[in-house]
Design a protein that fits this description.
- About 50% of the residues lie in helices and about 10% in strands.
- With about 750 residues, it is α+β, with helices and mostly antiparallel strands.
- Among the domains are: about 15-145 and about 385-405, no CATH class; about 220-335, no CATH class.
- α8 crosses α16 (about 355-365), α9 (about 220-250) crosses α13 and α21 (about 580-605) crosses α25.
- The radius of gyration is 52 Å and the shape is flat.
Length: about 750
């Protein structure tokens, strides 16, 4: 495939979601699609399962049946459909109804398609319709049921009105099993017809062969005699073998007749002559005379079979007075029927034996085969027209579904559209006062999460269950709001694309920033949670200590009372020491210094105080907001789809405007009226008290700071002693004037 687009065609691109995507708007775009560089396609492969598009259409495109639709397969489907439409741009409309006038009847394939489409409408009782839907083309049961002969190569009894031919087809079905046609009716194929008549000929020839005297030695009674011999053959030969052993050594007679203990074991049970234990015994008592009685003194379990042998085989051969057989006579008897048994082993055409020889000969002598040959030829003539019915269904499916597939494969126009959903969007999850539209069906959430975490999106894996036990799992992306109340085990409701509601439960979370607003408040929420945790820990520790002291006091009181001693008086109240007061003073001083410095600095800003507030907030929230912003810029749909079997070629970004569209937060309607009188609202007195307390602390801090600046010390600090006076140094003595020099 070429990797460079044809210079004769000018491609148009649109930019959405930060990537350039090719625009498919007309016939030329479809006809030149194989010339578009694959690097410009958004996807290079997609699965045929788990998408909101008819899986039968995807199976038609997936020519190699590997469960993936790849670029060459999609191109073949587009070219096939374009060649059979007058205007290939009709494929971009995505309409379910295929007008017959839209089919290109200028080609032989198109003419057959038009004829097949009309045949479909006639079969469905819609002769006046000029267009057919995908449902019409897919209703093969109704289409083929309307015509007994439909080019399938299967001839049902309804294909003819001749009773004799109908009866013959039913005989063939009874012998061969028949074949189900596309209409659901059972008929016969040309191969089954040929096999049936071949079996008829072989069976009649085989039966006629048995008419010779060398095979049917007793005529029609030969079969009964042979069956009687085969029923006892093994036991008779066992009997004569035991007799030969008895003749060889008389000491073996007792063992050959079975031991007394075996008879005792049988006698202890409810004795039945047909019991297995009795049948395993010899046919008669073993003697060296080697003669087998047939009517008296025989094993009761075999008496009926031996009597049948005497009547069917021994009497016709040796006479009725013959009531026993020796080994030589038995061998003579079996040899007499050996040819018949050999003939039975070579039976041919047994599948048609149930029809009987007279009926088989009647069918062979009749004209039924010629009538069937005519029906087969007539059905063959209809084969091209009815075979094209499957092509009509293919074209109808492509006419309806190729637009959706192209706009979720070559480009992602549907995903970035405000009025359509992409084929991988399974539905909408309602949870935590939000609705999430980016929900992807997943088969194995644990395996999916490994790669999906690279998307930098906040993903909640949700198990969905419907009444009746139907289950599925989806990965829902939260792209607006916060994650404060998203946790494993929380319940919601999921609506699939068919509008069915499912009970949804969060089973796994992949944590990532959801919004910059969440990042702004995150430090304050963490600080509040930290304070709450510390207060809870201190309160729990104090409660534990107080409980321990009470328990110790109670134990001490009980022990003292038990010893007969008066209870000790109340412990004296501890007195505050000077060090404690000093420590409290230092603590208050530190707090005052901090608050005072903050207030003084803030008041010193003058008109720039609002900027000071903004600066403080940025100092606190700025780092988390920056990190969230960087991660939100990297949010990408690709890993989520790749984990589901797609091959995403481009970076399908989920920027903040798109995220705001994919996840919708609860909002009051524009014309809603709201009453703010809440009967269960918290009383405002406590709030006023806290506000007053904060203002008093701030005022105290300001006063303390001003006093400190005036006096140079805090009011609880002692006044420093006055400095000791410093004595001035003594003046040096005056030096007497030097004497005048002598004249």
């Amino acid at each position: 495939m070429s990797t460079a687009s044809s210079p004769a065609h000018v491609w148009k691109f649109f930019r959405t979601g930060g990537i350039d995507q090719v625009s498919l708007t007309g016939s030329e775009d479809l006809l030149n699609l194989d010339q578009l560089d694959q690097k410009l396609w958004v996807a290079l492969s997609c699965p045929v399962k788990g998408l909101e598009i008819d899986e039968k259409t995807l199976a038609l495109i997936d020519s190699d049946g590997d469960g993936r639709i790849r670029v060459p397969e999609l191109l073949v489907a587009v070219k096939w459909a374009c060649a059979r439409l007058k205007n290939p741009a009709d494929l971009l409309q995505g309409k379910d109804s295929l007008p017959l006038a839209a089919i290109n009847d200028a080609t032989p394939e198109g003419k057959i398609l038009v004829a097949s489409a009309k045949q479909i409408l006639r079969s469905l009782g819609k002769r006046s319709d000029t267009a057919l839907t995908t449902a019409d083309a897919a209703n093969t049961a109704a289409i083929f049921a309307a015509s007994a002969l439909n080019g399938s190569g299967i001839i049902p009894p309804e294909a003819t009105e001749d009773p004799a031919t109908q009866s013959l087809i039913k005989d063939i079905i009874a012998c061969t099993g028949g074949t189900a046609s596309r209409s659901g009716k059972i008929g016969v194929t040309p191969a089954q017809i040929d096999t049936f008549f071949a079996d008829l000929a072989a069976y009649t020839a085989w039966v006629e062969q048995s008419g010779t005297k060398d095979i049917a030695v007793l005529g029609d009674a030969t079969a009964a005699a042979c069956n009687a011999i085969r029923a006892v053959r093994t036991k008779v030969e066992d009997y004569f073998a035991r007799c030969r052993m008895a003749a060889f050594d008389p000491r073996a007679i007792a063992a050959l007749n079975r031991s007394e203990s075996e008879y005792l074991a049988i006698a202890a049970k409810d004795l039945k002559l047909s019991a297995e234990e009795v049948a395993e015994f010899p046919l008669a008592r073993i003697e060296s005379s080697q003669s087998l009685p047939l009517l008296e003194g025989v094993n009761p379990a075999w008496a009926t079979a031996l009597a049948a042998l005497h009547q069917a085989a021994v009497t016709p051969v040796f006479g009725a007075e013959k009531t026993s057989l020796n080994a030589a006579e038995w061998a003579e008897l079996t040899a007499k029927f050996a040819a018949y048994e050999t003939w039975l082993g070579g039976k041919a055409g047994s599948a048609v034996e149930k029809l009987g020889l007279p009926h088989a000969k009647e069918i062979l002598a009749g004209q039924g085969r010629d009538a069937l040959a005519g029906l087969v030829a007539k059905d063959k003539e209809l084969e091209p027209e009815f075979k094209a019915i499957s092509d009509v269904e293919r074209l109808a499916r492509y006419h309806r579904d190729l637009r959706t597939l192209l706009h979720n494969y070559v480009n992602f126009a549907d995903f970035y559209s405000r009025d359509r959903l992409a084929v991988f969007q399974a539905g909408t999850l309602f949870l935590d006062s939000r609705s999430c539209e980016l929900c992807v069906q997943v088969g194995n959430p644990a395996a999916h999460a490994g790669l999906a975490a690279m998307s930098k999106a906040y993903i909640a894996y949700v198990d969905c269950v419907r009444p009746g036990g139907e289950k599925m799992s989806v990965a829902a992306c939260f792209t607006q709001g916060d994650s404060d109340y998203l946790f494993v085990g929380r319940h919601g409701v999921f609506y699939d694309r068919k509008g069915r509601d499912w009970d949804a439960t969060i089973t796994k979370l992949i944590d990532s920033p959801i919004s910059v607003r969440q990042a702004f408040w995150s430090p304050y929420k963490k600080f509040v949670r930290f304070i709450e945790e510390q207060v809870a820990k201190r309160a729990a520790a104090a409660d534990t200590a107080a409980t321990g002291k009470l328990q110790a006091a109670a134990t001490s009181t009980v022990d003292t009372a038990a010893a007969g001693k008066p209870a000790a008086g109340a412990a004296p109240k501890p007195k505050f020491e000077v060090g404690t007061v000093a420590a409290l003073g230092v603590g208050l001083g530190a707090i005052g210094t901090l608050l005072g410095g903050f207030v003084a600095g803030f008041l010193g800003l003058g008109i720039w105080m609002p900027l000071g507030i903004i600066g403080i907030m940025l100092a606190i929230s700025g780092p988390s907001m920056l990190i969230a912003w960087l991660k939100l810029r990297q949010r990408n749909l690709g890993p989520i789809l790749d984990a589901n079997g797609w091959a995403i070629n481009g970076r399908v970004k989920i920027n903040m405007p798109l995220g705001a569209m994919l996840t919708d937060q609860a909002k009051l309607p524009a014309n809603a009226k709201r009453t703010l009188d809440d009967p269960f609202a918290e009383k405002s007195g406590a709030k006023r008290l806290w506000i007053l307390l904060v203002l008093v602390l701030l005022l105290a801090a300001v006063i303390i700071r001003i006093d400190h600046n005036r006096r140079g010390r805090y009011f609880w600090q002692p006044e420093p002693p006055p400095p000791a006076p410093v004595e001035a140094p003594a003046a040096p003595a005056e030096t007497p004037p030097a004497p005048a020099p002598a004249a």
